[in-house]
């Protein structure tokens, strides 16, 4: 009886191991599908919104050109924006003061070209956003999945605190 229990236990562990491998493989496939979906979304949004493309791949449209200071990398800025994933999920919504360097690269690039009181629209490819890693919460769940394009309908540079 004891040997039967040990044998069943080993089979159960083997099945769990195989299921774990299949699950991880499935996640990788899902991220490839997600990546393709995001790449298509970026192309469609660029055409639909008539966005310009920078030499780094950042897509943008100037909605309102402000006047005044343009922030540098170490500047503190007050900005307001809501970022969406390509499926419409809001992934961040901020009205905050922070250093330019604390934002994703695509937002940094835009901010360093905006005058105070400017309003832009951004479509940020994954390599200028959160990359192939995405972001997770403290429980290990994705807040922003890998390969995610971020769409910011409006980002407003309200204040440049030091420049």
Contiguous runs where pLDDT drops below 50 for at least 5 residues: 16-28
- Give the SSE string: HEEEEHEEEE
**What form results from the Cα inertia axes?**
globular
Total helical elements = 2
> What is the arithmetic mean of pLDDT?
86
Second-tier CATH architecture: Roll
> How many distinct domains?
1
Q: Say what the CATH topology is.
A: Chitinase A, domain 3
Q: Pairing-aware structural class of the strands and helices?
A: alpha+beta
The strands making up the biggest β-sheet line up spatially as 1-2-5-8-3-4
Roughly what percent helix? 25-40%
Per DSSP, what share of the residues sits in E-state strands of 2 or more residues?
25-35%
> Termini, distance in Å?
77 Å
Care to describe what's here?
There is one protein chain. With 163 residues, the protein is an alpha+beta fold. It has one domain: Chitinase A, domain 3. Helix content is 33%, strand content 30%. It has two helices and eight strands. The chain has helices at residues 2-48, 105-111; strands at residues 52-53, 59-64, 76-84, 90-99, 119-124, 135-136, 142-144, 150-160. The strands form two sheets. It has a six-stranded antiparallel β-sheet. A two-stranded antiparallel ribbon has the order 6-7. It is globular. The model is unreliable at 16-28 (pLDDT under 50).
């Amino acid at each position: 009886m004891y040997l039967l229990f040990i044998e069943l236990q080993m089979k159960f562990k083997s099945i769990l191991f195989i299921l774990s491998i299949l699950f991880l493989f499935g996640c990788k496939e899902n991220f490839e599908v997600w990546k393709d979906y995001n790449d298509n979304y970026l192309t469609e949004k660029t055409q639909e919104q008539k966005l310009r493309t920078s030499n780094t791949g950042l897509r943008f449209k100037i909605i309102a050109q402000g006047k005044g200071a343009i922030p540098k990398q170490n500047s503190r800025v007050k900005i307001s924006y809501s970022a969406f994933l390509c499926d419409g999920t809001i992934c961040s919504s901020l009205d905050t003061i922070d250093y330019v360097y604390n934002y994703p690269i695509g937002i940094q690039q835009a901010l360093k070209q905006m005058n105070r009181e400017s309003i832009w629209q951004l479509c940020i490819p994954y390599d200028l956003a959160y990359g192939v890693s995405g972001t997770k919460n403290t429980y290990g769940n994705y807040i922003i999945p890998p390969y995610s394009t971020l769409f910011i309908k409006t980002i407003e540079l309200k204040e440049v605190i030091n420049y």
